[in-house]
């Protein structure tokens, strides 16, 4: 059975992803500049530059986030307890 309208064929999607690694290119340039024999020392210096030193994890019993969570829960508990006592829900 033929139709009166000509249907368009679906368009094919052809995308080839490309990945650009700026760190790798910078390391390659440093290797070319200083020679291949010092590549390990260059990589070690680069790793040291990007190492996190901000101290996100706090050693001890609680981290800052969990301490803040317990503090908020405690304040909410006290507010609810006060409201329940005020309106005689708790004797």
Structural notes for this entry:
This protein is mainly α. It has a domain at 67-91. The chain contains three helices and no strands. The chain has helices spanning 22-34, 39-49, 64-86. Helix 1 packs across helix 2 (39-49). The longest helix is centred in the last third of the chain and has 23 residues, at 64-86. It is flat, with a radius of gyration of 31 Å. The termini are far apart. The relative contact order is 0.05. The model has no long low-confidence stretch (mean pLDDT 76).
The tally of helices reads 3
Helix share bin = 40-55%
Approximately what portion of the residues adopt beta-strand conformation?
A: under 5%
- Backbone shape: flat
Number of strands: 0
Radius of gyration: 31 Å
Instruction: Give the biggest beta sheet.
Output: none
State the end-to-end distance.
Answer: 82 Å
Oligomeric grouping of the chains: single chain
Q: Mean pLDDT score, rounded?
A: 76
Q: Would you list the SSEs in sequence order as H and E?
A: HHH
Structural class: mainly alpha
Low-pLDDT residue intervals, each spanning 5 or more residues: none
Give the structure's gist in a few sentences.
With 91 residues, the chain is mostly helical.
Secondary structure topology:
Blueprint: H1 22-34, H2 39-49, H3 64-86
Helix pairs in contact: 1-2
Keywords for this entry:
52% helix, 91 residues, mainly alpha, 3 helices, single chain, flat
